[in-house]
Amino acid sequence: MNGAFAEGEKALFIDSKQRRYLATLNREGEFHSHSGFIPHTVVIGAQPGIIAETTKGAKYIVLRPTLEDFVIEMPRGAQVIYPKDLAPMCMMGDIYPGVRVFETGIGSGALSMTMLRWGAHITGLELREDFLNRARTNVRSFLGEEALTRYDVSLGDSYEEVPTGEFDRVMLDLPEPWRVVPHAENILVRGGLLVAYTPSIT
To answer: I need a labelling partner for 29 at 20 to 30 A (CA). Which of 63, 102, 148, 195 fits?
Structure first.
């Protein structure tokens, strides 16, 4: 998104010590800190890079958050995959616009958002409803409603079942990803790729 800040979008407030704070702009809202507050109306209509001053004289630079900023600062239920791992996963998985991805272990949606940003169409399974709802909310919050048209996620246990259909990629973030492999064989196209995030394996 380009141009001036609009009501309803995210803004990143950065103080003189490089501390970062994410806020959703609305006309009645205020950004509060220990050094006073800034009415959101100061930011709405301004260009990213504005220097906004609090009621106590502290200065914050206000920018549009990048995907990296949002992943680090976003609300979460599950532990997220951090940007240092998201980029290699998408490179190893060769994610591209239009690619059909089956993702399981959705968590808070960090990997989903990264793949959607790269143009993927995602079908996903998540065991926990609270994680699923959080992931959908995060996707909508950062990428907008359009991204949800490419994001078909539902409750389910991928150790027991996977969706029907054909997928170009299978992306796993699970404690025992090998338990999905027998199911994945039935949905992954010939020459497709499977990538598993396994940070607990030393």
So the answer is: 148
Structure tokens belonging to residue 106: 């959705």
Burial class, 77, CB count within 10 angstroms (exposed 0-12 / middle 13-18 / buried 19+): middle
Instruction: Answer left, alpha or beta for residue 114, where phi above 0 means left and psi between -120 and 50 means alpha.
Output: alpha
The pair of structure tokens assigned to 55 is 């009621």
17-40 b/e (C-beta count within 10 Å ≥ 16 → b): eeeeebbebeeebebeeebeebeb
Record the tokens describing residue 190, joined without a space: 């010939």
Residue 165: other Cβ atoms inside 10 A: 9
What phi and psi, each to the nearest 5 degrees, are found at residue 72?
-75, -35
Give the side-chain half-sphere CA count within 13 A for 46.
17
How far is it, in rounded angstroms, from Cα 37 to Cα 175? 43
Rounded to an integer, the average pLDDT of 135-150 is 93
28-52 pLDDT per residue, tens: 999 998 889 999 999 999 999 999 9
Angle at 67 between CA 144 and CA 5, to 5 degrees: 60
